[in-house]
Amino acid sequence: MSAGTATRSDERPGGTARLDPPPRLSGRSRLDRIRARGAWGFAAPALLVVAAVTIFPVVYSIVLSFADVEVGYEGFTIQSFGLGNYAALLQSADWYRALGFTVLYTVVTVSVELVLGMLVALVLERLGATRGWMLALMLIPWSLVTIVNAQLWKYVYDSTYGVATWFFGLFGDAPVILGEPVPAITGLMVADIWKTTPFVAIILLAGLVQISEDHYEAAELDGASTWQTFWRVVLPQLTPTLTIAVLFRILQAFGVFDLPFVLTNGGPGTATQSLAIMGYKVLFQDINIGPGAAIATSTAIIVAAGCLLFLRAFRNQAKGGDS
């Protein structure tokens, strides 16, 4: 009997026979393997490029963070390996100040953007034909390159002809916004919130439109108020979308570089110096390759640990809600 012919198995009651399906031909699996090898062959050049421009620099930076590097006219040489760069980092007051500013900046901006983004998303969800126009207008701040956005806010905060200086001057002596620590930090946060809130709102809006109307109708039949509906119906179902928004924003905010670099260059003093700016100055201005790589590596470790803890807390909360 040929391979493609169905075979007879046990007899059923009544004299009818049950036919087993024909066996899977080995030629089809061989064809799948050939196609898979061909796909990997076509993807290999792109994967090699990605590895060359992303994976290799990251690994090399981690290696340099443990190295004692000597820089000369003909390049740099690695003298030895050890934990000296990290030991010096943990004893550096500048690193702790940069870490404190970066954490404060991340917590404040992400929290405010989530609240404002949620309010904007709730309003947009209830709009009809005008929703598309409002989304287009909201995307304007987000679509601006951060360097352009920072330069615009630098004009706004200018101590001579800036709009913010003129506004505060109506109520008395206007502060030099970018020349004093607290106003400079606040000004940076305002600029970031103005640019990034539309991004958060659009992510949350995508989650809101996925919630079925049946849930709202059920809450209304149960006599739930608008506030109770939000906390007990909307927010639990929006938690996965909120998690995505928070993770995106933590990754962006913790690695902030371009906005403070253009607006304040880390000043006044080191008040607005983030970990990314500190790493840039140590690595490219002071030409301290080992300590600069240690700053970059420590920043990546801290933000990765924070994201993993957040995901673990979210997973535990989701399990508790399911139970």
Explain what this protein looks like in three dimensions.
This protein is globular. A two-stranded antiparallel ribbon has the order 1-2. The longest helix is centred in the N-terminal third of the chain and has 40 residues, at 26-65. Residues 1-11 have low confidence and may be disordered. Strand 1 (8-11) and strand 2 (17-19) form a beta hairpin. It is built from twelve helices and four strands. The protein folds into two domains: 22-81, no CATH class; 92-322, Orthogonal Bundle (MetI-like fold), CATH 1.10.3720. The chain is mainly alpha-helical and 323 residues long. Helix 1 (26-65) packs across helix 12 (289-322), helix 3 (93-125) packs antiparallel against helix 9 (226-254) and helix 4 runs antiparallel to helix 7.
Could you outline the blueprint of secondary structure elements for this entry?
Layout: E1 8-11, E2 17-19, H1 26-65, E3 67-72, E4 75-81, H2 84-90, H3 93-125, H4 131-143, H5 146-156, H6 163-169, H7 181-208, H8 213-221, H9 226-254, H10 258-263, H11 275-285, H12 289-322
Antiparallel strand pairs: 1-2, 3-4
Helix pairs in contact: 1-12, 2-12, 3-7, 3-9, 4-7, 7-9, 9-12, 11-12
